[in-house]
């Protein structure tokens, strides 16, 4: 599993317009090969928005970087101070804490 975190500030677009656009484009993200989930982020108070993407593996994330969706995000004039960071996932402890998959690991000694 691999995670990508994207953050940006909205510029010259209202939060309502941005939210409407998110609703409209969400189905395109749902169809991305290798995308396990995308969590959409919003903090109107600090004008910080973005997403947390969980990918099947690093290659799926790299393939996404070649798509028109990704390239469009990078070129979007309404996304200021855009940052994109990616991380490998420590899968063992993440399973214990029900991260990403939401499936808990059975406790030791439980029947």
Q: How would you portray this structure in words?
A:
By secondary structure, the protein is α+β, with helices and mostly antiparallel strands. It has one domain: Alpha-Beta Plaits (2-Layer Sandwich), CATH 3.30.70. Helix content is 33%, strand content 32%. It has 4 helices and 4 strands, in the order βαββααβα. The protein has helices spanning 15-30, 58-64, 68-75, 91-96, and strands at residues 2-10, 35-43, 48-55, 79-88. Strands 2-3-1-4 form a 4-stranded antiparallel β-sheet. β2 (35-43) and β3 (48-55) form a beta hairpin. The longest helix has 16 residues, at 15-30. This is Monooxygenase. It comes from Rubrobacter marinus.
Set out the fold topology.
Blueprint: E1 2-10, H1 15-30, E2 35-43, E3 48-55, H2 58-64, H3 68-75, E4 79-88, H4 91-96
Named CATH architecture: 2-Layer Sandwich
Q: Determine the mean pLDDT.
A: 90
Principal-axes geometry comes out as: globular
Secondary-structure-based class equals: alpha+beta
């Amino acid at each position: 599993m691999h995670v990508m975190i994207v953050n940006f500030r909205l510029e010259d677009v209202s939060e309502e317009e941005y939210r409407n656009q998110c609703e409209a484009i969400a189905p395109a993200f749902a169809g991305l090969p290798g995308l396990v989930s995308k969590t959409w982020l919003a903090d109107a108070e600090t004008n910080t928005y973005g997403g947390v993407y969980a990918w099947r593996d690093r290659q799926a994330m790299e393939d996404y970087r070649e798509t028109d969706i990704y390239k469009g995000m990078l070129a979007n004039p309404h996304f200021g101070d855009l940052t994109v960071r990616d991380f490998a996932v420590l899968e063992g402890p993440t399973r214990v804490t029900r991260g990403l998959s939401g499936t808990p690991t059975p406790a030791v000694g439980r029947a």
